[in-house]
């Protein structure tokens, strides 16, 4: 009898497969990192073939380590880095270009030109909930069609398919060029700039503005239903593929944020806070995105406000890989502990411009407040604090947009292992920060979506019952100090703006 659910988490830095049991606990994991390709300043790509190879491998690893076979798996859920655009040939199964990653800024001109058609950055906002920015998939697809030899002709003949990495993985898992299904879910579709938020259907006018043929777009299904089955001869032959959720929405689901006003913040490569706003979309006036939270089968769509921060954990990686100040990410905590405070240094990591709440593509990173007093310990602290300050800005925007005064924040993701950061986060927010026992909430959310679709779990109540608190950090900073530090952070942000112009490459 099949007693387990398998989740595949196709993330920005790695692909993971995790086997969960009925209590929502991790049985085994397989994980492989993939190459980050930086062909030019501001460009970030992934090899979609490598991602698919790694997907197969991590599933094999997780099953072998758990001493299980595909027969023990009741359903598979997929969760993924969102916005990252893959365009591939439906006959050969080959991508026509590397996947263009969500952090990539090459589409700035495309976004500006679309805005110039009328309406500026908010041209499509009331329909899709998003400002025109380099972050989203639609303009990335346009870039590929405009720049890859022969791509536009092929696309117009109906030979090319587009998807975020969820659609790429599902298409390959269910047969690829040999009958693979081309589907996505509303959480992923809501990150393309091409989906009407109210009807969950593709917007043909926006697709036409971007020159994207409708035949390239995947079918939008719900986040929890049986889309198809694992291909014969694959890793999970005949097993239902039954859940798709963008990774941040999956974490929101896995954290049991089912009530209006529930929020979670995930600390990974970037940081993403989502607030459940119920069954009507709320348009932000404060720099947040309106997005689909989840749609379970035929049930009403649940929407969310999202504060997306492009650089948080990746700043720690940068300290490790580009500066060599630490040799592993967790080491930053030891380095930060060599000093009492940031020594006056503030690090605004606007490496991909600034996302929420600013949406300023012309910003670039800045380390300010430097004196000869500042040493590498202070810089380590400034790196950690940058994540906490950016999160505070997002929380303020959420409070302003929704009227909800968040009294606590559920957190997850790789960085929440860092106690220094979590304490500083509680201090700067002025509300408790709570980490759950299962910190892999992204994969867990996708597992729940799949398990609910096949009746392995009954629904949201099972998710709530399985959720358990691991640790909470309560604020200990006084108000005056909190205000002083936050004011300096805001001042530091102003130093990053207006950096990119025609002369700056
Ligand atoms: N102890 C730590 N302190 C600070 N940052 C950390 C720590 N452990 C991991 N990270 C950062 O967390 C990120 C990995 O988190 P993860 O949730 O796996 O990311 P993703 O899902 O985006 O690939 C990396 O960017 C890494 O630098
Ligand atoms: O893969 P992650 O965890 O960095 O998440 C990426 C986000 O989905 C980008 O929007």
Automatic annotation (TrEMBL):
InterPro entries: ATPase_NBD, Carb_kinase_FGGY, Carb_kinase_FGGY_CS, FGGY_C, FGGY_N, Glycerol_kin. This is Glycerol kinase. Key enzyme in the regulation of glycerol uptake and metabolism. Catalyzes the phosphorylation of glycerol to yield sn-glycerol 3-phosphate. Pathway: Polyol metabolism; glycerol degradation via glycerol kinase pathway; sn-glycerol 3-phosphate from glycerol: step 1/1. GO terms for cellular component: cytosol. Glycerol binds at residues 82-83, 135, 247-248. Residues 4-254 form the Carbohydrate kinase FGGY N-terminal domain. It comes from the Bacteria. Residues 264-453 form the Carbohydrate kinase FGGY C-terminal domain. It comes from Cellulomonas aerilata. ADP binds at residues 12, 16, 269, 313, 414, 418. Belongs to the FGGY kinase family. Inhibited by fructose 1,6-bisphosphate (FBP). One of its GO terms (biological process) is glycerol catabolic process. Its EC number is 2.7.1.30. Sn-glycerol 3-phosphate binds at residues 12, 82-83, 135, 247.
């Amino acid at each position: 009898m099949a007693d387990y659910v398998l989740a595949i988490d196709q993330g920005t830095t790695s692909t993971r497969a995790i086997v969960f049991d009925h209590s929502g606990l991790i049985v085994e994991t397989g994980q492989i990192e993939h190459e980050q390709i930086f062909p030019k300043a501001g460009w970030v790509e992934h090899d979609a073939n490598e991602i698919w190879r790694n997907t197969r491998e991590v599933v094999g690893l997780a099953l072998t380590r758990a001493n299980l076979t595909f027969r023990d798996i009741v359903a598979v859920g997929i969760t993924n880095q969102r916005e990252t655009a893959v365009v591939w040939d439906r006959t050969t199964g080959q991508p026509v270009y590397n996947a263009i990653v969500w952090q990539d800024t090459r589409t700035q001109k495309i976004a500006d030109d679309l805005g110039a058609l009328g309406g500026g950055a908010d041209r499509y906002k009331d329909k899709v909930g998003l400002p025109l920015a380099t972050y989203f998939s639609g303009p990335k697809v346009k870039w590929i069609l405009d720049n890859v030899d022969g791509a536009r002709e092929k696309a117009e003949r109906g030979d090319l398919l587009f998807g975020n990495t969820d659609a790429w993985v599902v298409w390959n898992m269910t047969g690829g060029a040999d009958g693979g299904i081309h589907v996505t879910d509303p959480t992923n579709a809501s990150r393309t700039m091409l989906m009407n938020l109210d009807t969950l259907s593709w917007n043909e006018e926006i697709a036409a503005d971007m020159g994207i043929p409708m035949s390239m777009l995947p079918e939008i299904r719900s986040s929890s239903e049986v889309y198809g089955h694992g291909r014969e001869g694959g890793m999970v032959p005949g097993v239902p593929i039954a859940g798709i959720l963008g990774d941040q929405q999956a974490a929101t689901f896995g954290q049991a944020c089912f009530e209006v006003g529930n929020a979670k913040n995930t600390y990974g490569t970037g940081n993403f806070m989502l607030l459940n706003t119920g069954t009507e979309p709320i348009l932000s006036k404060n720099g947040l995105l309106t997005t689909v939270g989840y749609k379970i089968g035929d049930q009403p769509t649940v929407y969310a406000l999202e504060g997306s921060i492009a650089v948080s954990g990746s700043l720690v990686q940068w300290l490790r890989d580009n500066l060599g100040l630490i040799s592993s990410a967790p080491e930053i905590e030891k380095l930060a502990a060599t000093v009492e405070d940031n020594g006056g240094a503030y690090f605004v990591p606007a490496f991909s411009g600034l996302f929420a709440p600013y949406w300023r593509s012309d910003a670039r990173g800045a380390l300010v407040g430097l004196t000869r007093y500042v040493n590498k310990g202070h810089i380590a602290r400034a790196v950690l604090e940058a994540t906490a300050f950016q999160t505070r800005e997002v929380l303020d925007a959420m409070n302003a947009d929704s009227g909800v005064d968040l009294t606590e924040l559920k957190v997850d993701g790789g960085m929440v292992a860092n106690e220094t950061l979590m304490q500083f986060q509680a201090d700067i927010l002025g509300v408790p920060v709570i980490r759950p026992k299962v910190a892999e909430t992204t994969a867990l959310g996708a597992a729940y979506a799949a398990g609910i679709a096949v009746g392995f779990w009954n629904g949201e109540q099972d998710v709530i019952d399985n959720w358990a608190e691991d640790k909470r950090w309560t604020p200990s900073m006084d108000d005056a100090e909190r205000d002083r530090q936050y004011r300096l952070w805001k001042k530091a942000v102003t130093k990053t703006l207006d950096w990119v112009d025609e002369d700056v490459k």
